[in-house]
Design goal:
Number of helices: 10
Strand order of the largest sheet: 1-5-6-2-7-8-9
Radius of gyration: 46 Å
CATH topology of the largest domain: Alpha-Beta Plaits
Strand content: 15-25%
Largest sheet: 7 strands, mixed
Number of strands: 9
Shape: rod-shaped
CATH class of the largest domain: Alpha Beta
Order of helices and strands: HHHEHEHHEEEEHEHHEEH
Helix content: 55-70%
Amino acid sequence: MPLVESFTKKEFPQSRGDLHAWIHEHLKVSQKQESALVAAVDAVFTRHHQMWEASKEEAIQALCASFADKMARLQVELSAKDATVNSISTYFEQLVADLTDRSYRDPKTKLMNLARFTEQLESYLALERRGRWCAVGLADIRRFKWYNDSLGHVVGDRLIERVAQLLREQARNNDLVAMEYPGSNAQEVHARFGGDEFCFLIPRLQEAAQAYAIGERFRHAVAQYDWRLVDERLAAQPVVVDVGLVCLRLGTIAERRSLSGHLPADLIERADRRMYEAKNEDQNRISCEQVEIRDGELVALTDLSEAAAESRD
């Protein structure tokens, strides 16, 4: 009872040293018993401390594992969100590119439209330094209205699509596809002028006669194509094209710059006149002329179609 009373009446020991002093002061035991009791108390304190340290370490490890797991999940979520954002961004970039490309192209033939062709021609004329000549050509399908009215619009559409493909294949510069200027990954410079008419640019020619040869190759390819593959009725009325070409001696950029406001339109207009000249003559040949810039104006040089006709004769 005195031991219990001593605990209730006095402060409890606050440290291990206080407990040792309290045992020595209040317990009347032998030195050996006191030492054994102190050792037992120390053993309890030591074990309790070890268990507390172990529990603390386990708690810290559990917290770290939980935090790492949360961070990993968060990283996965962020990666998924980044992938979604990138996917959406790529989708819209592609969508804008597709819409832009469609705005530049004729939906039937996939050739660029006249406005885009004129832009590319203007860019080429403003920057080109490597070639001595270039050529602008126009072509149309002779008697196309007859095909459309007699055989139907479906056949007419097929004729336009096939002639566009032959133009892509044949209107080349030294057997390299004429590329949209500038850049090596762009599209070829062929366009649908409207209806059954097409226009094209042959860049970087070393001599004007090359343009005539390329135009003739295109005209011949159309004439030799087996049009029965499009419609059996075309066996009796095979398709031919009339081609007009204007070959420009490029000269210097400064000379071209003096006409930069209307040089592309002037070349297209001259090629158009040449195309109708070939159509009116009805001789299934190309009408082609050479021009150069002189004193700020386009000046006609040799008529290549006449020279070619004389050489054939």
